[in-house]
Design the sequence.
């Protein structure tokens, strides 16, 4: 399946500008339609103190929201005019669409691109966690670090591979949507030993049949754990993209105890594509 529809979460802040830059690069490369979206949840002030706010104060807060959204829309249009194709771009404000979350909206797109800490709009209720979006939307999500200006196609790709369902889903999304050309380093963390022979082909064989050069990297987690080991591998091979499954374990356990998905987003200094 070709990449033809991209949703980019945008708020005008430096982090989301980096994410939009990558989304525009993908728009040009794949001749895709790009939709910018500004999302913000319920205003904490209006939600908590609704019964105590005068109509004038409520109207002032609503006007502030509308003004911020208009500014973001104009900023998005300026970026698209400078770096992309305005004829294949649109913009939506999810706050104006009742009962629609960012994850729900994302289900109608091929790919979501967003920053690690998305959309402030000068208010804390404007934050959407990319890992939560990846968990709930059923579509792949690329998260982009602040100040990123690279090209994910110009460098190798690292695939975090544990043989489980989420990693397999991430690999399929990356192959068929991004049409990666390799090389791909298949990183298996937790053992330095060659895995036991499997019935049929393994992931290296799959990539080979797609005409992609693939190399296996086997490494113990070490004292710092799996996330640090994956980031170190990305640095060693000069990777431009890390592909991984999101939340193979439950999100609740990762939120409480920590986990690979959550830690990678705070450690990785390159784009990360997650699928669940």
Sequence:
């Amino acid at each position: 399946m070709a990449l033809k529809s991209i949703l980019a979460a945008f708020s005008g802040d430096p982090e989301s500008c980096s994410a939009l830059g990558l989304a525009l690069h993908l728009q040009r490369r794949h001749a895709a339609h790009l939709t910018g979206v500004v999302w913000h949840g319920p205003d904490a002030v209006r939600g908590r103190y609704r019964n105590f706010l005068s109509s004038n104060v409520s109207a002032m807060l609503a006007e502030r929201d509308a003004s911020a959204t208009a500014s973001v829309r104009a900023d998005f249009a300026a970026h698209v005019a400078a770096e992309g194709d305005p004829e294949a771009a649109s913009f939506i404000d999810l706050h104006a669409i009742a009962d629609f979350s960012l994850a729900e909206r994302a289900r109608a797109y091929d790919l979501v691109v967003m920053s690690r800490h998305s959309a402030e709009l000068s208010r804390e209720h404007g934050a959407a966690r990319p890992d939560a979006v990846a968990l709930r939307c059923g579509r792949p999500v690329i998260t982009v670090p602040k100040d990123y200006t690279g090209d994910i196609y110009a460098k190798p790709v690292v695939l975090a591979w544990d043989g489980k369902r989420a990693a397999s889903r991430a690999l399929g999304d990356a192959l068929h949507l991004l049409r990666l050309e390799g090389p791909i380093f298949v990183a298996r963390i937790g053992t330095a030993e060659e895995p036991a022979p499997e019935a049929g082909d393994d992931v290296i064989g799959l990539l080979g049949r797609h005409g992609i050069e693939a190399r296996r990297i086997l490494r113990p987690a070490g004292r710092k754990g799996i996330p640090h080991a994956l980031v170190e591998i990305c640095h060693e091979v000069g990777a431009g993209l890390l592909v991984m499954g999101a939340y193979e374990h439950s999100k609740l356990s990762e939120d409480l105890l920590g986990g690979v998905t959550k830690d990678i987003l705070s450690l990785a200094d390159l784009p990360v594509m997650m699928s669940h």
